[in-house]
Amino acid sequence: MKILVCISNVPDTTTKVKFKEGDSLFDDSGVQWIINPWDELALTRAMELKEDAGNSVNEICVIHVGGASADATLRKALAIGADKAVRIDACPADAYHVAGQIAEYLKENPFDIILSGIESSDYNGSSVGAMIAEFMDYPGISSVTSVNLDDDDIQINRAIPGGKQVLKTEAPFVAVVQKGIATEPRIPSMRGIMMARKKPLEVKPAVELEVLTESIKFELPQEKGACKMIDSESAEQLVELLKNEAKVL
Amino acid sequence: MSVIAFAKNWNGKFKNSTFELVSYTKALANQLNTNMVVLSIGEVAEEELKLLGNYGADKVLTVSNPQLNTLTSRAYADIVAKAANSVEAEVIVLSDNNSGKAIAPRVSVKLKAGHVAAVQELPLSLDPFVVKKSVFSGKAFGHIQIKSDKKILTIAKNCFGLVANPCDVAIEEFALDIDTNLFKVKIIQEEEQKDKVILSDADIVVSAGRGMRSPENWTPVEELAEVLGAATACSRPVSDEGWRGHEEHVGQTGKVIAPNLYIAAGISGAIQHVAGISRSKCIVAINTDPEAPIFSVADYGIVGDVMDVLPRLTKALRNSKS
Amino acid sequence: MNFEFTEEQLMIRDAARDFAQRELLPGVIERDEKAIYPTEQVKKLGELGFLGMLVGLDYDGGGMDTISYVLAMEEISKIDSSVSVIMSVNNSLVCWGVEKYGTEEQKQKYLKPMARGEKIGAFLLSEPEAGSDATSQRTTAVDMGDHYLVNGTKNWITSGKTASTYIVIAQTNPELKHRGINALIVEADSEGISVGPHENKMGMRASDTHSVMFNNVKVPKENLLGEEGFGFKFAMKSLEGGRIGIASQALGIASGAYELALKYAQERKTFGKEIINHQAIAFKLADMATEIEAARFFCLKAAWLKDQGKPYGHASAMAKLYAAETAMKVTTEAVQIHGGYGYVKEYHVERLMRDAKLTQIYEGTSEIQKIVISRGLVD
Fold first, then answer.
1. What is the ipTM of this complex?
2. Which secondary structure element, helix H or strand E, spans residue A161, and what is its range?
3. Which CATH fold topology does A2-244 show?
4. Which of A236, C224, C276, C327 has the most CB atoms around it within 10 Å of its CB?
């Protein structure tokens, strides 16, 4: 079996977000770029599946739609253990565009399992995985918290509000994964970093695709008013304020 | 032309978020000077469907096939797209919850409809069609223009509220063939916690952090949640340490929530945590450190030890109730 | 000139940073206070390949350059110098020497497991009567024909108890003075070796520092490193590289303390404003940042020379001297900026200050570095 992990390259989660050019563009000066945390967990789970002898997973490929600035992120994925990286050379316009590019690649290069993080921590499209499933006419499963292969029999856990479901499906399929899919991302080893040098990072030209949406402006949330401080002995006063001032009780 | 909303049900029942969706879609239809259709999938009793009329729905299409009682995103997306086509919908609106997130992208591809998730309010302009959504995990908003003729939105919880708008409902069965090929995912087991308030639905959330000092100290949190009818949540370090389950983790890499009231007990308020709660209507922070960043996003603050303050708050609430 | 790091070097730095944050930060205060050896942490460090990162791929190492080593040492030392000293000794004192001067058999037998981090190495040079003055070795390795017979005591040995492989510097031909000294690979479980009690140190308390006693220890002839009489030169060569490790450690201690002080100064308010807005504190931070940057350049320059195959002993002495002095100064200021909080363990800076002191002392005191530097001036 072959696993494809979709990777997006996002600002580090501690980034303080700023904009430039009349608030029309994200200001990326001084920003540290990382693998989208959910995608990194998806890659970790893919690695675990490959290392487990109880299934036939033998190849892990990571794919990204974007410019050359993401190559460092892709090489990190190779250092962690992916066998191959593919970058579709395009400016990622929106989720439809990104998913369409990945689907085009999948048509030529089939995979059994496609993993995508629940959302990217930048534009929070949360749509790419489900769109790939639709482009390919594959089953797609969202809110996935575990993917298990028992001799290639696929069993998936999915979070539902207040509970969980255990599902079975057939390959090929797309799983949109969230926290829980793996415990923590892996740190690349020195050997892994050396090996990554020799692994392929293919750059593919993008296909022509319509762009359906466009970000035209950004704004920061309004500053909150000052916090009203209440004495720690006066719990009654807080209850009173929540009832009559904030009106939330 | 029309606007269509997909009203998801849970075991045949709608939630407040469904009615918020209908309220929003009605306002959007008015803005566009067109009519609204609400689509329901799976078996829902007529009285329940009629509740949608309280928020402005005058036409409800229902696909009351028991095969569709549980969500299958592929089949649901197929139905939503067909229904949207049949009523010549220009805009399709869903709630930004698990099902909306699973269905909307598929419909977007089927109809080549530009999709924007987690929309915060009615469109900022209609021509061009621009909506506002949260980006960078709640750290900012983006104005997104949808360029395609058809548009599909999922709306963020608590972004619009409920708007009463009673009208008579015409319920119509939407007949279509269901492709059994679309049911390749089989549910083999399901567990649901019936007795607990569900975090993503909760109007009030009591959340606790490392300030609780140990997992054995959670009783005051649970007692406060109980008296408030609130869901419990926690910060990332707490779920990473295994003090509480991952499903309770609120923040940038956990759940992003928007309750009416969020009580943060012993949470310092790291930027990633704040990203997950910033859309809460009212935030109360309790922390021993007066300089903790959580106070800069809170509406009300108490400097003190959570182990003292929480029981006091629980007691005050009980007294005010009785 | 090129001041850009390669993508790979940055990846190594990030890996070291992630490791330090995730694996070393939790429990670092307790390990220091109770002098608990970081067994688990060192094991993971080995699994990631940091313990043998400078060793070539053919011998199961990481095949990394010295620039990457500086970056990794800095990141790990920001959090836990007790761990980074183990990494430094294993990499630059023990593995380096075996790889550079060892026979193929020695490399297969001793280097590979150390490069993989499965076994830890220790470097036994200092003696009760010969610390900085390494020429007057009292430990003897008498040539018995088919083996050496080693007797004597070594002091202040990092990883003295944990290490499986020792490199021992000992006198074979006293009449030849320092030209009679040999370097031997000695297995730590050889008969006749005993390890003294754990040294209760001021800083780097979690690393295990011991004295090691040799009483008629038989060492096979094939364990001689380099030629007969090469031991002193071997030790000096090893220390040239070791200094890059310790200089980078000092750099990390300094930058770790500086980062904490900077963060604290932006959060802590006095007289109605954050203390960074008081010039007295702002200027301290400016000096700290500048000196750290200078120390970093010294370390990277020495590493670069080593990677280029150029002489680096002079540069590494300057790096070690400057970085250690900077670490002491910066950590002292970081404690000062923290005020009372700086004096309690919870805020980390007092530990960094205690750790900093050792960098001025071990692997050649600051005074010894000045001797090396000044001799280099007139050569």
1. 0.91
2. none
3. Rossmann fold (3.40.50)
4. C327
